[in-house]
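Hi team,

Filling in the usual template for the complex we talked about on Friday. All components are listed, including any nucleic acid strands or ligand strings, so the model treats them as one assembly.

SUBMITTER: L.P.
PURPOSE: interface mapping
COMPONENTS: two
RESIDUES: 446
SEQUENCES:
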Amino acid sequence: MKTIAVVCVSGGVDSCVSAAVAAQSHDPAFLHVNYGQRAETRELKCFRDIADFYKVEKRLVVELGWLGKIGGSSLTDKTQSVPEGRLGREGIPSTYVPFRNANILSAAVAWAETLGAQAVYLGAHEQDSSGYPDCRAGFFEAFGKAVGLGTRPESNIRIVTPVLAMSKAEVVRKGRELGAPLELTWSCYRDEHIACGRCDSCLLRLRAFAEAGIPDPIPYGKK
Amino acid sequence: MKTIAVVCVSGGVDSCVSAAVAAQSHDPAFLHVNYGQRAETRELKCFRDIADFYKVEKRLVVELGWLGKIGGSSLTDKTQSVPEGRLGREGIPSTYVPFRNANILSAAVAWAETLGAQAVYLGAHEQDSSGYPDCRAGFFEAFGKAVGLGTRPESNIRIVTPVLAMSKAEVVRKGRELGAPLELTWSCYRDEHIACGRCDSCLLRLRAFAEAGIPDPIPYGKK
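RESULT (copied from the run log):
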C-alpha cells in the first residue's frame, strides 16, 4: 500500500505537476487554501477538477481569509491593481503575501500528522518567483527542520518541493511527461472564466509553454 | 517610540505574563486564535479583557476552525473526554493539537510583517507541556530560522518565548512582579463561567499558584 502525501494544490501548473509527481509514489491527499486571493473561485474549481482527475478521496479546503484581510499584497487587496508588464523587474513583487507559504505548510503538516502522511508536497517555484522570500530553498530547508522538531517523533513528515529548481518550461515538460491534466489548471490573477493573457502570471505561463514547445491547452481572452 | 511586537494571547496565565513582558519594551499588538478549542468563548473574553487592560489598539482574531475539525486532539474533539488526573504521566497528552504552535506563529509572523513589527511573543511553556513537540526550545529555534529566511530581508522578526524555560510557579511570580492582570486569565479546559478546578489544566494552575505562595485570584466551582 502506498503511503499518504498531502499535496498543496492551488490549481496552477506548478501544483498540478507537483501532484503528478506525488501520485507516482504516494496516495495523494489534496489541500487547498483560500486566503482571499483574487482568483479564489476559479482556483477552487481547478482544485476540484484536478482532484477528480487523480481520483483523490481525501480533500481539505482551509479558509485563511484573515491572511488576505491583513493587507500588504496586491494579490488579495482589490484596491491595488494587478501587475502587468512587470516581468524582469527587480525586488519583491506587490503580489507577495506575507509568510504565505509558512501558513500553507503549517496547515498541511497539521493535516499530514492527523492522516499519518509521510510527506507534504508544495509546488513552489524559485526561479519565476525569485522575489518571494518564502519560495527559496533555504526557507524550505529551515521549515523542514522545524517540522521534524515540532511534530510527534514517529511522524517523520518531509517537505517536498519537486519543481522548486526547475525552469517554468521544464515544469510544463515534466507535466506533459507525467500526463498531468494541464488543461484543468489556472494561472491568471483574475477570477474569470477565460484567462486574460495580459497579467504577469499569464505572461509567465505563456512564455513557459512557448519555451517548452507545447501548446497551452487553455483558451485566452482577446489580448 | 516603542517598536511593535505581536503577542499571541490565548487568555491563559502564560500568555498574559508574556504580554506583560512584551509591554515593557514594545507597543503590543494582540493576536488570538480560535481553532475550535473547548474553552473558545471564555478564552476570547479573556483576550479582550487583557487587551483592554493593556490598552491595546491593534487586535486580530484569526479563525483556524479547520485545525479543530481535522481531529486528533481531545482539546478540540468534543467526543473525547477532557483529561483529569493525568499529571505526571508519560508521553504526549491527548490534548496535543497537531502542529498548533506553527500555525499560530505563522499567522503571527504574517501579521507582524504587515505591521512592521520586530518580534512575535508566544507564551509556550516547555516544562508543564513537555509532551507537546511544538513547545520545545529546539522547535522555536528552527522556526525562528525559517522566519528569517521566509520573510522580507528588512523584516527581522524575532520569535520570543519569555516563559518557555520557567516553572509554572515562576511564571505566576513573574506575572505578579510585572503587575499582570492574572485575575483576567482562564486556564480551565471547560468553556464555562467558573473554572472547574478538576481538569489537568486547572490542577497545573492551582499547583503553580500554591508553589508561588500567591492566592489564585479567580473563583473555582465545587471540587
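MY TAKE: The domain at 3-212 of chain B is CATH 3.40.50.620 (Rossmann fold). The interface with chain A takes residues 60, 62-67, 70-72, 92, 96-103, 105-107, 109-111, 113-114, 133-134, 136, 138-139, 142-143, 145-153 of chain B (CB under 8 Å).

Thanks, L.
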